[in-house]
User: What shape does this take?
Amino acid sequence: MKSGDIFGYAFGAIRLRKLRAGLTTLGVVIGIAAIVALLSISQGLQATITDQLQSGFATDTLVVSPGGGGDSFSGFGGGSESSFSLFVTDAELIGQIDDVVGSTAFIQRQCLIQSGDEAVGALVVGVDFEVYSQMYSSTFVAGDGEISFDTAAGIVVGKQISSPYQNETVFTNAGDVVEVVWTNTTVRPPENVTFSVIVDAVLEEIGGLSIVSPSDLAVYIPISEAQSLFGTDECDRILVQLANENDETIKSVSEAIEELFDGQVSVSSSTAILDLISSVFSTVELFLGGIAAISLLVAGVGIMNIMIVSLMERTREIGLLKALGMKSRTVLAIFLSEAVIIGVLGAVFGIGLGWALAVVAAQLFTGGGIGAATGQAAVSTGFAITPVLTPTVLLGAFGFGIAVSVIFAIYPAWRASKLKPVDALRYE
Assistant: This one.
């Protein structure tokens, strides 16, 4: 029997049992769709975050955080548990190290920005405007107004603080006077500290994610004003700009900083963070793919079950075919062909469904749906995710769908091929 005839016979058998075959294929469709959707979203999220970090990160900068012995990422979270503190004046000490061209302390607190009768929550960051603008010359740029480098300058607000509702409604513009309200929870009872200040500038829209780089969701004040407003000389971290981005420079300056503070600080470079994030996402993708693969394995069990039922129903048919001279390997090929057809159909429709789900999910994330629903300001992240369906995921999902279908069909196919014509024809 030729290959074309075998596939034709298998396809005919599936067509005679449309509903059963459709339900069997649906299991494969769901499994493949889950794999494609999760991995497409994950890879799209990774690409978005990486792009945003690369655009926001200056590759010639270091971040110094209190707490030694941590890895690169712990540094951004404040380092490992330690009673060691960094102070604003420590930035000057770091600035004296060779190959360091600038450094600024970084103090941040969650505050309320009051403009007229409206208020929005925002992260208020105290930095040295002059050094910070040199570090992030492409993103710390005024779109409205002008950034002043005076120590008693006004504030600079991110684009989404100025226009939190993502429409023509503007919360504040350059030249407006706003109140920055910080709740000091270190005293009892907690008390509000209010700081009236003029908005010097609104940043150009940056978009996306930020760790220490300029953000659309932050408000920037001079470091001296931050010390006064928050009543502290301790800083969360110190940003350091290097003379160049060479690995040797990064290593030598990092070692010098750690030696300066006797190993009580963590020094992180932008490239190390990007590498770590890529590694984390690879692990997440593997985890998500494994979860989705479980549903496909369940579908495979369903295929085996259906094939065994089909074998029992077609036992006499198989016996008749073998009595007429059909070989065992041909019977085996027919059953496996049915599994291949189910796998191909399931994979094709599953990939299409998975991609559609990924696009819908990405639009929900991008639209800031939750924030839009609540109507609150400063909730839209402007975080655009574009699903990414790589050839590896596409071909992998397609092949995996077929492979699972065939593997779980091997046993029923083998049983069908081993039927003896006499026994099969006597089967009731």
The two ends are 28 Å apart (CA to CA). Residues 270-313 form the longest helix (44 residues).
